[in-house]
Amino acid sequence: MEDTNDFGTRLERLCQEKGITPSELARRTSLSRKSIFEWVGKSGRIPRDPLHLKKLCEFFKVSPAWLLWGEEEKVSTIDSLISKTDLHVGMYEISIKKIDPKSKK
Fold this sequence. Notes:
CATH architecture: Orthogonal Bundle
Distance between the termini: 35 Å
CATH topology: 434 Repressor (Amino-terminal Domain)
């Protein structure tokens, strides 16, 4: 699979490879059409809910690390994502930031 630079572009490419539209992706994953359109494309944002990210990864059979950062890894579970990220939950948004597992806080 061709590597791209950002989440939204990778998601758009996965839809193209599977031959589905963002609307079809929403229907088949039971995710909101509005959310899918916010995520797809060059300016697409990362889903706020980790469970939505999990649904996308399961549907396309890709790892969270690949979908978020374009990295391949052997373990393709949401647990591997959580162990490599800081999750910051605010009143309105969750941000996911990649961290170096070797660094000490």
